[in-house]
Amino acid sequence: MTEINLEPSLSTCIQTLSRKQHERIVQELLKTPEEQVELEQKAEMLKIFLESTDFRKLRKEYEPYLVKGKKVKFTLRLITDRTEYSMEII
Q1: Which pTM does this prediction carry?
Q2: What are the contacts of 45-48 at 24+ separation with CB within 8 A?
């Protein structure tokens, strides 16, 4: 199963991290002519996540932990046609 890990900070939110990661993956896919199934899955996963997530609500959920000095890690997984995520406080 393909996964993506993202760790937001007080200076870079989960939405920005997701968008930048998606852009990097798409650029890499455009550079390489051969099929790269895992990268394609990651691009699709991030696209779905960006289109379907209420980031305002999500930030309210994890930012208090960041303010307290804790780290937050999100793990994204592609489940059929939707992206599922889990949040871990470190």
Answers
A1: 0.89
A2: 45/2, 45/4, 45/76, 45/77, 45/78, 45/83, 46/4, 46/18, 46/21, 46/22, 46/76, 46/83, 47/22, 48/78, 48/81, 48/82, 48/83
